[in-house]
Design a protein that fits this description.
- The protein is mainly alpha-helical and 90 residues long.
- It has one domain.
- The chain is built from 4 helices and no strands.
- Helix 1 runs antiparallel to helix 2 and helix 1 runs parallel beside helix 4.
- It starts with 5 loop residues before the first helix and ends in a 10-residue tail after the last helix.
- The relative contact order is 0.16.
Length: 90
């Protein structure tokens, strides 16, 4: 388990689930593109910027990381809708 704790880990899993589903649906169902996105996401978060693993949950960069991820996820859902997560062009 991460240093950040159980609740942030659950929140992170939920946020990433939305991101990967959105990416999958918006690439026309490309599993390869989604797998590459997942790989770059893991590389960025855990190898290049391992802020959530190094510092305690009260550390300011960790708080910024989780808040910004929640804002991005909310914007994605507002922009594309919650049913299909694909923006419908009228």
């Amino acid at each position: 388990m991460q240093t950040a704790g159980l609740v942030p880990s659950i929140a992170q899993t939920m946020v990433f689930s939305v991101w990967f589903a959105w990416f999958y649906f918006n690439t026309g169902g490309s599993v390869l593109a989604t797998a590459i996105f997942h790989s770059f996401n893991a590389l960025t978060l855990f190898a290049i910027f391992p802020v959530a693993y190094i510092y305690s949950p009260g550390y300011i960069p960790v708080i910024y990381l989780y808040v910004s991820a929640a804002i991005i996820t909310a914007a994605m859902l507002i922009y594309s809708g919650t049913k299909t997560m694909v923006r419908q062009v009228e």
